[in-house]
Predict the structure.
Amino acid sequence: MSGRMLAGMLALGLMACSRAPVKENVVVTQPVVETQSLAVSAAVLTTVQALIHFADNQAGLSDSARTILDDKVAVFRANPNLRIVIVGYASQPGTEAYNLKLGTRRAESARSHLVAQGISEDRIDVATQGESHRLVEGPGEPADAENRRDQFQLLIDTHNDVFLASSPN
């Protein structure tokens, strides 16, 4: 079976079971996806997609965030073709414009840490959602603390077709 045909079949299968498309990309929900250069296991997805959280109105990394990012470094080193998108989020307080900028600063903070550990900046894209797409609804510190985060999405490139790999929610 040709790589193009396999990619097409993979794309059709993924579209059928995806939860939410991201632009022209597809959310991958299978626990293992194999491409020419990368086998994505559930363990790799779990490590890559582990969230980091931030203090209120801050983009600096905590010790626990650094530890989580260092675990991702090991996965990057073991998978030289791995690429990710880091999406920064904020909690409800603040204006939409401010929270979008804060989300960007948070994502860039995580990327800077990964780059400082020797991971090529070309392998890491950054995006922001500001306060949209909250994990926990409602006012108050418990909800806000969960929503101040960076999420990590694995990009899988199969012959010029790029997919976002994520766990089902």
